[in-house]
From TrEMBL:
Keywords: DNA-binding, Transcription, Transcription regulation. It comes from Nocardioides donggukensis. Residues 246-265 are annotated as: Disordered. Residues 4-66 form the HTH iclR-type domain. This is IclR family transcriptional regulator.
Amino acid sequence: MTQVPAATRALRVLRFLASQPDPVPLDRIMRACDLPRSTAYHLLNAMIDEGFVIHLGEERRYGLGVAAFEVGSGYSRQEPLQRIARRPLADLVDGTRQSAHLAVLHGRDVLYVVEERAPGRPPLVTDVGVRLPAQLTASGRAVLAALPLPQVRALFPDRAAFVQRHGTGPTSLSALRTLLQETRGRGYAMEDGEVTPGLASVAAAVLDHNDYPVAGVAVTFPSGSDEVVDLAGVVAQVRRAAGRLTARLGGRPSRPATAGPRQSQ
């Protein structure tokens, strides 16, 4: 059992607020973070005093404060995740001969923070700094599958939250829940043509010491072409790379899937 429950709750609130596109009311914070009303109220007031949260009184909503921005800016300057990810991703490219990337969840999108392009492979839409709808990407699905359901529900409250690119992918929370359940059962996420027609990706989540998904590692390869891809081998190497990063963050790598996928061609 944790010895600092107040700190754990405060970090949980910060993480939830950071995942939202706009400030949110107290009830949303209570449900997403599993907090009693009085606890949430006093916790938010303490965080307001320290500058990590702001209260928009007229709207009765809470959002991130300047102190949270300062912490995020410090992270951006130091780039710890990007630094430790470059070698595993480079090894992943060497092993699969396909391009690999690392993405983090940013609201309902994923933000690509590292890309390692395989020699001779064309450029991908997943360049560093690009944002894409999380529910369409393999890396986003890997992260979403490892999140608590209330947080997924908060991110996708209605059909308007489900942006599409090519007319494919989940368009409702129930469809997304089914997809994420399948992802958890397989032990990895995948998408085929939902981001870019003719290309498919597989991904695995990177977990921190609290088993919270901080990023997704993915490999993208041709789909439906004459090129034969050892999909089972790619999946194994993606999971291995995610496991290496998870271990570096103090997390526990997930166990291998019980059954491997078929080859893609």
